[in-house]
Amino acid sequence: MTTDEVLAGVGPRLRQMRKEREVTLAALSETTGISVSTLSRLESGLRKPSLELLLPIARAHRVALDELVGAPPAGDPRVRSKPIVMGGRTHWPLTRQPGGLQAYKVLEPKRKHEPDPRTHEGYEWLYVLSGRLRLVLGEHDVVLTAGEAAEFDTRVPHWFGSTGEGPVEFLSLFGPQGERMHVRARPKGA
């Protein structure tokens, strides 16, 4: 497929994706910062797609740029990531795409910590695979066991970790704000 053929397919793909998600041009414009007229011209093929236009649209729809331009599948879909050890916790990234929703498998060793609730922009979802996970969320102090999940607005003061009885393995999903807080932030006292 030639470059011109690939570019010609972008507009209809953008329109189809937006309509499938039931998003108006005005709403997409507000999310991306791209004018309604520019979005309309992109979808109709009257404006050539550029990286500066496609990146915010891909972010808004939470899809890879490849999906917008119709790139062929990229072979092996398995995520092969190296573990990240921070503050004694081991994180295995389960997503390859930067930005947007991120997923991690986390192993928290057996240890007793005094909760230090924090807040940040975003939303988080936790699912316990094994062990017991203590979650302090606002006024709540609960223990989640294997098979239990929790979801919460991260603007509410929160902390989670081992109960001190043994290690806990869990999945954590969050947006870009949560990624900055949980993966890149230096633990207190480190």
Description:
The protein has 190 residues and is an alpha+beta fold. It is 32% helix and 27% strand. The strands form two sheets. Strands 1-2-3-9-4-7 form a six-stranded antiparallel sheet. Strands 6-5-8 form a three-stranded antiparallel sheet, with no helix packed on it. A hairpin with a 2-residue loop joins strand 5 and strand 6. The radius of gyration is 21 Å and the shape is elongated. The relative contact order is 0.13. The C terminus is likely disordered.
What attributes characterize this protein structure?
6 helices; disordered C terminus; six-stranded antiparallel sheet; 32% helix; 190 residues; elongated; alpha+beta
Order of helices and strands: HHHHHEEEEEEEEEH
What does the radius of gyration come to?
Answer: 21 Å
Q: Which segments are poorly predicted (pLDDT under 50) over 5 or more consecutive residues?
A: 178-190
Mean pLDDT: 85
Class by SSE composition: alpha+beta
DSSP strand (E) fraction? Answer: 25-35%
Output the number of helix runs: 6
Question: Can you list the strand order of the major beta sheet?
Answer: 1-2-3-9-4-7
Number of strands: 9
What is the distance, rounded to the nearest whole angstrom, between the alpha carbons of the first and last residues?
A: 52 Å
Net shape: elongated
Which percent range fits the helix content?
A: 25-40%
Major sheet characteristics: 6 strands, antiparallel
